[in-house]
Design a protein that fits this description.
By secondary structure, the chain is an alpha+beta fold. The chain has seven helices and eight strands; from the N terminus they run E-H-E-E-H-E-H-H-E-H-E-E-H-E-H. The protein is globular and about 45 Å long. The chain starts with a strand and ends with a helix.
């Protein structure tokens, strides 16, 4: 049975608090198995009978809306996809290893179009730099150059679609644990 990672948007932010045991129970209700959560930021690992990640996203979103009463955009990645994302090098290692730099991965439902990509890349600055690869945005935040103007909703507006962000360390820890 395939294993998936669900990256949930709007879990434990903006007053929407969900305990991880409740979230695991919510994922078990539709019949998913081996459900685990990874830190309290909306990362759920589970097994499902289907290999159609788009149908899984829709099914989970509908179930969470019904159960929680608000939209929880869901971004599904398979274990092989997660492994590839964690290995991907969007910037030079010298840039990523600077102590004041933070690399984030933004998960999208689909690859953005050319106009969205152009709009996002035009917003790069000495503080913020962006790279897109398939359904992921890699955002390099260089703190020593100032305060970033980017966060979830600003990033979403720039690309014209919803996203959820994770620190690359979280992504790599998930990959280390689940991508054997």
């Amino acid at each position: 049975m395939p294993k998936y990672i669900a990256f949930l948007r709007a879990i434990n932010v903006g007053g929407h608090l969900v305990k991880m045991d409740q979230l695991r129970d919510l994922f078990a209700e539709p019949g998913f198995t081996n459900v685990e959560t990874f830190i309290a930021s909306g990362n759920v690992i589970f097994d499902a009978k289907t290999s159609n990640s788009k149908s899984l996203e829709t099914r989970i979103e509908k179930h969470l809306f019904k159960s929680l009463g608000y939209e929880v955009k869901t971004f599904i990645r398979s274990v092989p996809e997660l492994a590839a994302i964690s290995r991907y090098q969007p910037f030079d290692a010298d840039e990523i290893e600077v102590a004041t730099h933070t690399l984030y991965v933004g998960f999208l439902a689909e690859a953005p179009g050319k106009a969205s990509i152009k709009n996002l890349l035009a917003k790069a600055s000495p503080v913020d730099d962006f790279h897109l690869n398939d359904r992921e945005i890699y955002w390099l935040y260089r703190r020593e150059h100032g305060e970033s103007k980017f966060y979830g909703s600003v990033l979403e507006k720039a690309i014209g679609m919803q996203a959820t962000l994770r620190n690359v360390n979280t992504v790599q820890r998930l990959a280390k644990k689940y991508c054997k």
